């Protein structure tokens, strides 16, 4: 094996700088992470005040709500990416006669 390591630049990248770079590439990833954390934390908080609701039902709701938020964030990210790549260039490349 050669001594040149083509992955050395990626290993030097820290966790925060990687998150910042990824959030520039796809801005809805941090929104999905924050929403998942918020909805999940709220579900854990509500665990104390679930009254007569069964634990299994509460845990199912606690799983489905954050997943739904992340799916919505990913869908919005895909729609934004499609707009940015396909629709916006067409509207600005209209030839003026």
From TrEMBL:
The chain crosses the membrane at residues 27-45. It is found in: Mitochondrion membrane. Residues 1-92 form the HIG1 domain. It holds the Pfam family HIG_1_N. Keywords: Membrane, Transmembrane, Transmembrane helix. One of its GO terms (cellular component) is mitochondrial membrane. One of its GO terms (biological process) is response to hypoxia. This is HIG1 hypoxia inducible domain family member 1C. It comes from Monodon monoceros. The lineage of its organism: Eukaryota, Metazoa, Chordata, Craniata, Vertebrata.
């Amino acid at each position: 094996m050669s001594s040149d390591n083509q992955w050395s630049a990626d290993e030097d990248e820290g966790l925060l700088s990687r998150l910042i770079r990824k959030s520039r590439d796809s801005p809805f990833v941090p929104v999905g992470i924050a929403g998942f954390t918020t909805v999940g934390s709220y579900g854990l908080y509500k665990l104390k005040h679930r009254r007569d609701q069964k634990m299994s039902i509460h845990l199912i709701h606690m799983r489905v709500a954050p997943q739904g938020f992340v799916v919505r964030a990913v869908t919005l990210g895909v729609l934004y990416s499609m707009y940015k790549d396909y629709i916006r260039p067409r509207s600005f490349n209209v030839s003026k006669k």
